[in-house]
């Protein structure tokens, strides 16, 4: 399929999310372009996770709509939902693997749910997905509790990629990883995005990730998306939270580490 950068793979229009009297989103609009990594940031409780859950259809909004690949997941039929689910991969903060299943069995879950495949083919697909995320084949026989935090994230990612999605949703994927593990995970996302032509919706607090992998950044504040643009433009956007976030001490450290990474890439390139 021919795709252009301007093609919107996700469209959120006039989204209204409310819990009791607490309004989390009001008249929120957002577009995600095919092939981009969009980072979603905002203070704690601004509704990043609620936005993600509304887009993928895990939460029905109180108003407005969120369409994925042209389908409004909150109003779709079961059949439409299943078709879209097959084209989306999800990775939540804790990796969300089933603890009573081995890694291999975890990766099989979406494959079995959506396809009828022989045991041999399932084994081959599990091995392939593990290789894709940089895990060795014997990880398939381990339980999540037997893996390090970084390996669990990779296993979660392997499961999210089981159905060869075109759209990947990541909620705080580097939370809990040490800086080296987080940087390696960022690089993995970037290389997978390029190799598999993925569109990535990334909720994160991690400034390093923003600079390392995002094409655009959307900032949630005041119940809306206050700005969505390239990192260099968002960084200079006039808004109190944006200024604190991008120009505080942690931001300067992240900017210089991103610059170092670029220098290294250039000198190796
Ligand atoms: N099921 C729920 N019931 C009641 N309130 C909820 C529910 N889910 C979310 N909220 C509220 O909605 C607001 C937004 O939550 P959300 O988890 O989306 O924030 P966030 O931006 O992802 O925050 P963080 O960065 O801390 O993870 C919060 O105030 C939260 O308490």
Automatic annotation (TrEMBL):
Keywords from the named record: ATP-binding, Nucleotide-binding, Transport
InterPro entries, A to Z: AAA+_ATPase (IPR003593), ABC_transporter-like_ATP-bd (IPR003439), ABC_transporter-like_CS (IPR017871), P-loop_NTPase (IPR027417)
GO MF annotation, one: ATP hydrolysis activity
Any Pfam family hit: ABC_tran
Source organism, top-level taxon: Bacteria
Residue ranges of every copy of the ABC transporter domain listed in the record: 10-247
Xref: PROSITE patterns: ABC_TRANSPORTER_1, ABC_TRANSPORTER_2
Entry-linked PANTHER family: PROTEIN TRIGALACTOSYLDIACYLGLYCEROL 3, CHLOROPLASTIC
Protein's UniProt name: ABC transporter ATP-binding protein
